[in-house]
Each structure stands twice: as structure tokens, then as C-alpha cells.
Design goal:
Blueprint (H helix, E strand, L loop, with lengths): L4 E9 L5 H9 L17 E6 L3 E7 L9 H16 L2 E7 L7 H13 L3 E6 L6 H12 L6 E4 L8 H10 L18 H17 L8 E11 L5 E11 L2 H8 L4 H18 L2 E10 L7 H4 L6
Parallel strand pairs: 1-3, 1-4, 4-5, 5-6, 8-9
Antiparallel strand pairs: 2-3, 7-8
Helix pairs in contact: 6-8
Length: about 300
């Protein structure tokens, strides 16, 4: 009988390097918010991959960046604490890097300190020439004894099995930590909050910085007139300034309606049920410095 393997795999890298995109690709479900902005991921989100011979539990950590608020400090703490708790690391870097930058150097030093099995993932290879890629591989291979170096494009599904096979090869025999049909340990409420926040970040582009967070205040399941399951969800988008509130709501409420519509479609697809979503916008100026809010983003 073939041994069953399992383990915890932490994705680590600088902000905006593609960790959440890679996590969603590997898991095959939407478990992490994706936006082309720094600091999209604020908590350590687990994604679960069940294979015939293994169960892989991924931890997507916040990107490494210079902390400016309590929230930033909490996010960094979350990233580095995950190194100690995992069995294997996926260190994600960008193929466009010419050398080892300051942020990647900090992560590399932490990996050396932890002395963990690590797979180097070089993302966005479609943006560079082969010579640049080979130079980068040589540069990093001299720094640490990686289990493997895998150049990829995180948006291309063809790399999925290559990475999963390499991860499985490096795991030890272990138990089934989660049920076979689970793909995340996030609650539906957390997934709803993540989905709304992601859509807000995408729609708002650069008009409103990352000073928003979403709180689902009500989430109740019921049957509609056609006897179908439906979730009634009421959520508030909090921002830091009155001017931001106006931008999020938009002219005649159009921006908020757009965010809500996109989030509802995503949720219905993810939850496999109808969703009735209502959203509001409120100002909470100093939320990034408030312990009561920041503690929600602490690694559980």
C-alpha cells in the first residue's frame, strides 16, 4: 500500500508577486483575494488540495513590505510566524528581477534562519528572455540549497500539476488533517468579506488606497419563493476618509452597486447558492491602528 502524505506549505514573497493567484490556481477554487495592488492578503489564508496520495494545506501569507501601521506590523508578524509552523516553503519571486532585491533578501535570510525545505517559484516568466531567467536561477541557487526551482506563469494552469508533484515529493507521511471535500478553513463569512474587498479594490483602481476593510454584519440562510437556498448578506465597507466614502459609493450609488453585483456573482459561484447582498459604506478613520480591528488579521 502506498503511503499517504500530508503537510503544511507556506507561500512567501514580496507584495504583489502573485502568491494569491498561485494559491487559487493550485487549489482550483477562489480562496484568496486577487487584486493588482500591494497588501491584498492580510491574513494567513489556508487552501487545501486533496490528491490521491496526499493532502496539501497551503498558507498564503501577506506580502513582505515596510510596516507603517499596527496593521502592517501584524501582517509581517503573520508572514514570518508561518515559516516556523510549516513543513515546506514556496518562495515566490518575480522573473523580471535583475538581482536579489532588498525585500527578497530579507525573506531569503529568514528562510536560511528557519532552515526549511524550500521550493523557489519564479513567476511571470512570460515577461523575460531566457538568458535573464537563467541568470536569476544561478543567482538564487548560489544562495540556498532549494529542493527545486520552478519557473512559471501563475495564471497558466499547465504549471499546476508540476508544482503539486514537486510538493508531494517533499512531504512526509501524515494524516488527513481536513475532510476530503474541504478546500479552505475560512468560514463563508470570511470568504464573503474577502470577495467584497477584492471587488472593491479592483473596481476602485488607484482612487482609494488600501485603507478599506469589510465586515459582514448579517449572514442568514433561508428558502426563497421557488424553494431555493439563498443567503441574505449585509456588509459594511469601512474606509478612512469622507472623500473615500464618496468615491466608493459613486455617482447615484453606481460604484457601490457595481462592487456589490460583482461580489454577488462570485459568491453565488463559490457558495453554490443564491445570494441577496446589501452593502453600506462607513468612515472609520483610524481603524488600522485599532487593536480591536487589527487582531482580526492576526494569524490564528
Amino acid at each position: 500500500m502506498t503511503e499517504f502524505k500530508s503537510g503544511f506549505v507556506s507561500l512567501i514573497g514580496r507584495t504583489n508577486v502573485g502568491k494569491s493567484t498561485l494559491l487559487n490556481l493550485l487549489v482550483g477554487e477562489k480562496v484568496a483575494a486577487i487584486a493588482n495592488k500591494v497588501q491584498t492578503t492580510r491574513t494567513a489564508i489556508k487552501g487545501i488540495v486533496n490528491r490521491k496520495k496526499s493532502q496539501i494545506i497551503f498558507i498564503d501569507t501577506p506580502g513582505i513590505h515596510k510596516p507603517k501601521t499596527k496593521l502592517n506590523e501584524t501582517m509581517l508578524e503573520t508572514s514570518f510566524s508561518s515559516l516556523a509552523d510549516c513543513d515546506l516553503l514556496l518562495f515566490l519571486i518575480e522573473a523580471t528581477s535583475k538581482d536579489i532585491g532588498k525585500g527578497d533578501r530579507i525573506i531569503l535570510d529568514k528562510i536560511k534562519e528557519a532552515n526549511k525545505k524550500t521550493i523557489l517559484i519564479i513567476n511571470k516568466i512570460d515577461l523575460v528572455e531566457k538568458e535573464s531567467l537563467l541568470h536569476l536561477i544561478d543567482l538564487y541557487s548560489k544562495e540556498y540549497n532549494f529542493q527545486a526551482v520552478i519557473p512559471i506563469s501563475a495564471t497558466n494552469v499547465k504549471y499546476k500539476e508540476v508544482i503539486l508533484d514537486e510538493i508531494e515529493k517533499n512531504l512526509k507521511s501524515g494524516p488527513l488533517y481536513y475532510d476530503k471535500d474541504e478546500y479552505t478553513d475560512q468560514t463563508l463569512r470570511q470568504l464573503a468579506e474577502e470577495t467584497i474587498r477584492e471587488k472593491a479594490l479592483k473596481v476602485l483602481q488607484d482612487e482609494v488606497p488600501h485603507g478599506i476593510y469589510v465586515e459582514v454584519e448579517k449572514m442568514k440562510q433561508r428558502k426563497n419563493k421557488e424553494n431555493q437556498d439563498i443567503y441574505d448578506i449585509e456588509a459594511t465597507i469601512y474606509c478612512q476618509r469622507d472623500s473615500h466614502k464618496g468615491i466608493i459609493i459613486g455617482k447615484n450609488g453606481e460604484m457601490l452597486k457595481r462592487i456589490g453585483r460583482m461580489a454577488r456573482i462570485d459568491m453565488e459561484e463559490n457558495f453554490g447558492t443564491k445570494v441577496n447582498l446589501k452593502t453600506w459604506v462607513k468612515v472609520n478613520k483610524d481603524w488600522q491602528e485599532k487593536d480591536s480591528i487589527v487582531k482580526k488579521f492576526k494569524n490564528q
